[in-house]
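Hi R.,

Here's the chain you asked about this morning:
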Amino acid sequence: MFDKIVEIVSASGYVGVFGLMLLENIFPPIPSELIMPLAGFVAAKGELNLYGVVLAGTAGSVVGALPWYYAGAKLGEARLKKWSERWGYWLTMCPDDIDHASRWFNRHGKLAVFFGRLMPAVRTLISVPAGIVKLPMPVFLLYSTAGSLLWTALLTLAGFLLESQYEKVADYINPVSTGIVIMIVLIYVYRLLRLRFGGHKQT
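And the predicted structure, written out as tokens:
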């Protein structure tokens, strides 16, 4: 899986980094914790520019946050929770997930957008409460971009610095990255089946 992701990033360049990070924020097929370090690794090999990789990843992350922001702004909390209860299982999202993101936002205010972009469990849905309260778009973009830039830069730099240890890193990360992707798929299938057929009791 390590080699495969490296091949994809090498072949698709900045567009591929942008697209993968955009998808990761809407429906996470591969987590940014794998995407950006491997993109940084490709940059270290001289195939891409380090700063270009960080900017492409940050842009994809921010653009990927916008659909959830607009969903919150257009639908509102009550309608969005009803929608998630009926159809959210396809995204393994339930009303409790929206409640969790809303509590996080209410506790930290607009800073929740910044810190939420650094947290895997919150990153995707933190845009929802921001949209629900109609946080001004310039403020949302500022905090979302700042958080995404920091997260993306750290992950990319980690991969960039590991380039000299390619063989060792590949030996360890190949099985680990494959295991992570398999685990994500299994978790997705489990949550989909549980939410689809097991029902959901709102708290």
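Residues 2-197 form one domain.

Let me know if you need anything else.
M.
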